[in-house]
Amino acid sequence: MNAFPTRPLVLDPRGVIEPCSRCDARSQSVCNAIPDTELRRLGEASTTHTAAPGSSFITEGEAASAFFNITGGTAKLYKLLPDGRRQITGFVGVGHFLGLAVSDTYAFGAEAIEPVRYCRFSRARLRALLDDFPAMEKRLLQVASNELVAAQEQMLLLGRKTARERVASFLLAQSRLGVVCQMPRARFALPMTRGDIADYVGLTIETVSRTLTKLRSDGLVEIPNATEIAIRNRAAMEQIAEGLT
Hints:
With about 240 residues, the chain is of the alpha+beta class. About 35% of the residues lie in helices and about 20% in strands. It is built from seven helices and eleven strands. About 30% of the residues are buried.
């Protein structure tokens, strides 16, 4: 069952159902700035694609010719290090808009963790939409601002927080990922590997595993399986993340 109610189907003047009206991601993405009556324009400006787990759909250093809107699944963002290693810089899911490059090339790569669906917008076509729908441009500016805040939080996480604080901060952030209202989820999926989590929070896999085990033994979280987690005591987890305990 979908986490959000499906939008009413919208017909174009020829009586054809617009695919964008059936997209569950629209309520969470910048596309929501386009009125229902103009969904045909939105659909014509994009193409739909899928990425299999382990495959990249954005390559760092390539020409930034398009933008990407995630409509299903989870992907990890990464940067390449000079020695060939990769540093994970974030995880994205439904509703995330990627590719707001400040240069002519992509500053990061994106790889699917699980099957990912996304819409691809060329720069030219998106620019035409923004000219006609300034509300969408405003939403994109909000996205860019949120990315700056996320980058600052990541710097704090890696530079100042203890292992326990890092893992707690990560879990709280994941519980808020993709929610439309202000109510974070108590139980949610963790499709990324423990190695991916360790890379993101700057710890070893063993330290991440030990920290999760300790949080569980303290009664703060439940771990039903390797790809799911539940927060039992959010207030305590928030205190840990903020360094108050």
